[in-house]
Amino acid sequence: MKKNVLIVEDDQDIANLVKLQLLDLDCDVDMAHDGLDGLALFKTNQYALVILDIMLPGMDGLDICKTIRAMEPYIPVLMLTAKSTELDRVLGLELGADDYLTKPFSILELMARIKALFRRVEAMQAAGKQQENEYKDNGKIITIRDITINILARTVEVLGENITLTAKEFDLLYFFAQHPGQVFTRTQLLDKVWGYGHDGYEHTVNSHINRLRAKVESNPAQPDYILTAWGVGYKFTDEI
């Protein structure tokens, strides 16, 4: 089955080059050279991947990425940019980008990362089908004290009140709830929740932990659920 890919890139030469490579992978490709046009395409079509430049006319890539992450279903985003500072890379990942390449980039590296993202999504879909089959028999709800997680609906309630989480916040909470009492380093969480390692971006985990605590803990400064394992990382409570 062909995969539909959206390229939002104002440099037409780069966009055309990436499109040619994707056509070799038997993908269907839509292109936009303006941020607003790209977002309009995303909202009206179904894509398996979005390749997104940061510096765009109309609407920048970071705002587009943030908008995509507020929508369902989860679509992987690969960001391209001429910027190379650590802050820019971290900000892209903070807003939900799955991977990041700085221009100029190797076409071979770009294609390797695209293939890796496709494999990741296929693995997630396979795992989701397996989980759905399991939950038909075992129930699709995880309840840990005052927190209720509906896996299939991807909703979370705390004390009966619905809590709005981003896609990555939900993934992080769900991962923790699956492994109560088990300590994970920041690097392990990047690998398990973000899909693969982003060496040097451990502060991405910290910021997501802080935001998640602010939403699910009665007192984020003294958390009951998402606990710090000092000198190592984090764990989820095993006190049911």
Gist?
The chain has two domains: 4-123, Response regulator (Rossmann fold, 3-Layer(aba) Sandwich), CATH 3.40.50; 140-236, Orthogonal Bundle (Arc Repressor Mutant, subunit A).
> What multimeric state do the chains show?
single chain
* Helix and strand element order: EHEHEHEHEHEEEEHEHHEE
Structural class: alpha/beta
> What is the C-alpha radius of gyration, as a whole number of Å?
19 Å
Strand content: 15-25%
Q: What is the top-level CATH class of the largest domain?
A: Alpha Beta
CATH H-level superfamily of the largest domain: Response regulator
CATH topology of the largest domain: Rossmann fold
What would the keywords be for this entry?
240 residues; alpha/beta; Rossmann fold; Arc Repressor Mutant, subunit A; 2 domains; 5-stranded parallel beta sheet; 4-stranded antiparallel beta sheet; 8 helices; elongated
Describe this structure in words.
This protein is 45% helix and 20% strand. It has 240 residues and is an alpha/beta fold. The chain folds into 2 domains: 4-123, Response regulator (Rossmann fold), CATH 3.40.50.2300; 140-236, Winged helix-like DNA-binding domain superfamily/Winged helix DNA-binding domain (Arc Repressor Mutant, subunit A). Strands 2-1-3-4-5 form a 5-stranded parallel β-sheet, sandwiched between helices. Strands 6-7-8-9 form a 4-stranded antiparallel β-sheet, covered by helices on one side. The chain has a 3-stranded antiparallel β-sheet with strand order 10-12-11. α6 (167-178) crosses α8 (202-216) and α7 (186-193) packs across α8 (202-216). It is elongated and about 55 Å long. The termini are far apart.
